Request: fold
Amino acid sequence: MDYLAVNYYRTLCASHLPADGDHPAGSRAFRGNEMDFDQYGWCRDERNESLAASEYGA
Reply:
């Protein structure tokens, strides 16, 4: 994990997603049905498995 961002609604973790010959910097890499997207050369969203769901959401 390269950084952790926390706010009232959400906690985000991200790590570097290196660009390569098949994936130029700035191109998007969508994962499943998630709203967030990853960008090669910038970052990849990571799930924080240490967080527990609460009555206000997951």
Q: What stands out?
A: DSSP finds no helices and five strands in the chain. The chain has one domain: 3-46. The longest strand covers residues 11-16. Residues 27 and 39 are 6 Å apart (CA to CA).
